[in-house]
Amino acid sequence: ALQASFACKAHNQSQSYLANNQIRSSFKVAVLGAAGGIGQPLALLIKMSPLVSTLHLYDVANVKGVAADLSHCNTPSQVLDFTGTPELGDALKGVDVVVIPAGVPRKPGMTRDDLFNINANIVKTLVEAVADNCPDAFIHIISNPVNSTVPIAAEVLRQKGVYDPKKLFGVTTLDVVRANTFVAQKKNLKLIDVDVPVIGGHAGITILPLLSKTKPSVTFTDKEVEELTVRIQNAGTEVVEAKAGAGSATLSMAYAAARFVESSLRALDGDGDVYECAFVQSELTELPYFASRIKLGKKGVEAIISSDLQGLTEYEQKALEALKPELKASIEKGVAFAQKQA
Ligand code: NAI
């Protein structure tokens, strides 16, 4: 019963992969910003994965206690703690997947772009260390604004001569998780079956759920499309306002990020059937980075799924054109920041 209530299709695939004893290997995962609102529950969920051998927790403060606490869970992975810049290199050595939720979250009235000045520097510094210590790792960027922090990370890696576009991901899984939940509620569907691709970026109108591509196939009225699209786009703000100054989504984000980590680990382990949405370098549109469904493999992005962009409804086509200028500006802001710092 627990599994059914917790489940979605990706989670289910993951459960069956694990239950069928197909695991070949186990992996080292690092969380940077591990003592934060996302970092702590994310570390807990990763600690539960049988695909993880070692979990490295890094933060600028308060990480010792989190690691001590977590290390008492009797799941196989070992938990190690690392505090502050002098220990950052060791936190990253030998790591297969690096997850970055370090940085400040939104307060009511703020857009994700308002976080740029602080989080841009944090992401830059952390990704420099990734480039120096584990350049082959998958990098999952959670820190907002994702539309800018992913281009920053790419530029930093490029400057260091180690950029592999197949291994850098902006984490947009929460948009998919929200879309699946809201669509299932609205259409009275079994949540476990619902899968809505979400494309574009990860802020406001750049988040574009492709409701016409919902699986299982389901029809929406124009009003339902409008309401669902706006709710999915503003879902983060719904949480920010409900928390009234205490931050943004942490628990649902941790759930979503853990799903993306698990999918990445399954791909690294050789599972040939792993699909997720993520914000990656892309040629799907004229923009250099774009979120869409991707196929994950051992080397990262194995394919970008272009078919989702074919046969869009008029509403989706308009929304796609409307989001491009904002997404383009956010990407350029990130690139300009990284190039100015170089
Ligand atoms: P938080 O403030 O609770 O935690 C952030 C953690 O980062 C803190 O423990 C802090 O000490 C740490 N930190 C700060 N500077 C650091 C550095 N240089 N190195 C390592 N750690 C550092 O914030 P929360 O709620 O965990 O959010 C983190 C980020 O995730 C925010 O930027 C937020 O906007 C973003 N976010 C992204 C979502 C997505 O869908 N991609 C969804 C929700 C939040």
Automatic annotation (TrEMBL):
UniProt-listed GO biological process terms: malate metabolic process; tricarboxylic acid cycle
Organism expressing this protein natively: Heracleum sosnowskyi
The keyword Kinase appears for this protein: no
UniProt similarity note: Belongs to the LDH/MDH superfamily. MDH type 1 family.
Alphabetic keyword roster: NAD, Oxidoreductase, Tricarboxylic acid cycle
Name of the protein described by the UniProt record: malate dehydrogenase
Record's subunit section: Homodimer.
EC number annotated for this UniProt entry: 1.1.1.37
Gene Ontology cellular component annotations, sorted alphabetically: mitochondrion
Tagged with keyword Mitochondrion: no
Annotated Lactate/malate dehydrogenase C-terminal domain residues: 172-337
Gene Ontology MF annotations: L-malate dehydrogenase (NAD+) activity
Residues represented out of the complete protein: 68 to 409 of 412
Catalytic activity: (S)-malate + NAD(+) = oxaloacetate + NADH + H(+)
Residues covered by the Lactate/malate dehydrogenase N-terminal domain: 28-170
